[in-house]
Amino acid sequence: MFVDFASRHISGRLCVAALLLDLCVKGEEITQTNAEFVFVSPQTANEVLSRPRRYNSGHLEEVLQKDSLERECLEEQCNMEEAREWFEDEQKTLEFWARYVDGDQCEPPPCQNAGKCQDGVSSYTCWCKPSFSGKNCEIVLAQQCSLDNGGCSHFCDMKQWQVECHCAPGYKLGPDQKTCTPTEPFSCGLVKTGTTTKSILTPRTSNSTQRNSSIQYDNYDLNLTMFYEYYDDSGVRDVPSDYQGDQGQVLEENEGSSSDNLTLWSTPNRTDPNAQHNADQRIVGGDEATPGQIPWQVALMEQRAGILRPMPFCGASLLSEVWVVTAAHCLIKRAGKTIRDDFFVRLGEHDVLQDEGQERDYSVSEKLIYPNYNYTKSPYDHDIALLRLSDPVLLSETRRPICLGPRTFSETILRTVPASLVSGWGRLRFQGPESPRLQKLEVPYVDRTVCKASSRESITRLMFCAGYAQEQKDSCQGDSGGPHATNYKGTWFLTGIVSWGEECARDGKYGVYTRISQYYKWIAYKTGMKGKRTERSRKVKS
């Protein structure tokens, strides 16, 4: 009786549930089998209604216990403010939050070469050891151009984070892809064995040079096609050998037609012609060069009244078989009215009073003065000119070109090599006699701040100082246009042109030189020098 009542009672409850689901069936038909369609397991129910779960034991942990990082952020979701309350430190909060939001970006470790990884939100930062760089510390600085020129003998360039060495014309890369080996009998910048230059540097002067080991880099193989498109030659006027002009018009050029788009800071202004005698350049305190020791040295020769033999009035440097570079002011007559044509070029000269058998004379077919040079405005700003020879030079051990490097390379070796070499037949002292034999002198580079402070004239960025403040050693009048040459790993490169100074070897004064690095593109454009010698090349010993 009781069992039957209980059965009917249960059946009635099931019927009510079935009616609510629109699945009502008779109580006697509900069995264990079809009950599974009405009731689901706890796991299935949790999947339908998911929610963060907090670990509570029922003892009021949130009220009575201290905040827990595990409770706030690991067992349930938290926001950044809750994490900040826990850490009470901004940096630790950020580090935790970066991992909490999108995982640890430093796993697996992305940094190479023992770099330390710092996780970030969707990113990471590698802190590299001193000898490495790059996003993942993958770049070895010892293999970069910024360190010891990348190990290159001549020019260093970067290609996809790899060092790529280049050589001057007349050289090729050796098997190590760093050393440059001569490929011609008289490759540029070499001196025959046994003619090394005696150093006259003292510890004081050696320490006075600026040492900046950072070498930035250019590709020596100038893309002339791109440069032709870049260079505006519309305002450049090449001066023929027989040019005559009026004062104020001789060198008036389009001031904007510069290959480097150089802007003038300030120029030495010498309107008094008599002032040029003290500023005219300029080897005092040097020693005699041996024949063939400076084979790129050129003498610009003139016939002087009352002297049977032609004498040098300026120097120059041989760049190739047909191109010579000198100072622009050497080509202007004293009054600034005309460009002189009463001279010729001599190579292989040593003693101007003797015929030694190595001398060769050449006439000039073309004079190219830098387009922004203006003698009436400043005789020494943009003080550079090119001379094209009528016939190619017969190269020999006593007549060979000096190498020309890209802008950054030339600038860097100028500043970092302890001393460079200047040479010429100029006066042996201020207002003294000229030297009949070629003189040479090693001079250190002078910091620009010291250089500017030493002169009453303006030193523009197109110039630099070299020499000694307290020693009787300097270039002097008659050396103008000659080479300022720097030896880098056994090869000589042209880094400057003797230009001007205030007297010679005067205390607190330095020689001032044209900064050749600023004119590399112009020289390359005008001469066509690009990885090869110019036309009509002939090389013979004599």
What's the N-to-C terminus distance? 142 Å
Given the structure, what is the number of helices?
Answer: 12
CATH topology of the domain at 203-527: Thrombin, subunit H
> Largest sheet, described in full?
8 strands, antiparallel
Please mark out the parts with pLDDT under 50 across 5 or more consecutive residues, or reply none.
23-28, 59-66, 195-283, 531-542
Mean pLDDT: 72
Q: What shape does the CA trace take? A: elongated
Region (Disordered): 238-262
EC number: 3.4.21.22
GO biological process, one term: blood coagulation
InterPro entries: Coagulation_fac-like_Gla_dom (IPR017857), EGF (IPR000742), EGF-like_Ca-bd_dom (IPR001881), EGF-type_Asp/Asn_hydroxyl_site (IPR000152), EGF_Ca-bd_CS (IPR018097), GLA-like_dom_SF (IPR035972), GLA_domain (IPR000294), Growth_fac_rcpt_cys_sf (IPR009030)
Keywords:
542 residues; alpha+beta; Thrombin, subunit H; 7-stranded antiparallel beta sheet; 23 strands; elongated
Word description of this protein:
The chain has 542 residues and is of the alpha+beta class. Helix content is 18%, strand content 19%. The chain has twelve helices and 23 strands. It has helices at residues 2-20, 42-48, 61-64, 69-74, 80-87, 90-102, 203-207, 224-230, 276-279, 407-416, 448-454, 520-527, and strands spanning 116-120, 123-127, 132-133, 139-140, 155-159, 162-166, 171-173, 180-182, 239-240, 287-288, 297-302, 311-318, 323-326, 344-347, 360-362, 364-369, 385-389, 420-424, 439-443, 463-466, 483-488, 491-500, 511-515. Strands 9-16-17-13-12-11-14-15 form an eight-stranded antiparallel β-sheet, covered by helices on one side. A hairpin with a 2-residue loop joins strand 5 and strand 6 (162-166). The longest helix is centred in the N-terminal third of the chain and has 19 residues, at 2-20. Mean pLDDT is 72; it is low at 23-28, 59-66, 195-283 and 531-542. It is an enzyme of class 3 (hydrolase). It is found in: Secreted. Factor IX is a vitamin K-dependent plasma protein that participates in the intrinsic pathway of blood coagulation by converting factor X to its active form in the presence of Ca(2+) ions, phospholipids, and factor VIIIa.
